[in-house]
Amino acid sequence: MKNYLTDPLTDDEKSEIAGIIWMVVRNCRYKFFNQKENSLELIENLDITYNDIYSFDHLDFGDYRDHLCPLTESEKTDIVNKLNTLMDDLTLFELKRALTFNEKLVFFFSFMENYKNKTIQFLLSVDRKTIYNRQQTIKAKIDFFREVF
């Protein structure tokens, strides 16, 4: 039996311990990320006027996964125009002005329609990193507006 307090570690033992540490770090980050994504934030003292009987029937978004081919520019423009109308109806003027055209598309597909990133990537003809960056930018802008208002 080796006394680990007095004897130095061999290279194999060092690499095995480092592997265990990195595995624990990776698992903790994964658990933290899932916990952060699944947590519900309560917003207190938020005064938003709303109508309890509001209907979204006049907005026909459709399901763009049916034909699953990249969207044309006219389809993208239609989606953004409908989203702008919805934001006007919900009095989200500042968010509407803050989001760019492409961010509004990602906002619509990922946060409203709950499409997976792979589907969004295919519909918008962009790579995965672009979708991730736009989602992070959208979240940052929303967090900024939560702090300000």
Could you explain the architecture of this structure?
With 149 residues, the chain is an all-alpha fold. The protein folds into two domains: 7-39; 73-148, Arc Repressor Mutant, subunit A (Orthogonal Bundle). 62% of the residues lie in helices and 0% in strands. The protein has helices at 11-38, 73-89, 93-98, 101-112, 117-124, 128-148. Helix 4 (101-112) packs across helix 6 (128-148). The protein is elongated, with a radius of gyration of 23 Å. It starts with 10 loop residues before the first helix and ends with a helix. The relative contact order is 0.08. The mean pLDDT is 79.
Q: Secondary structure elements and their pairing?
A:
Layout: H1 11-38, H2 73-89, H3 93-98, H4 101-112, H5 117-124, H6 128-148
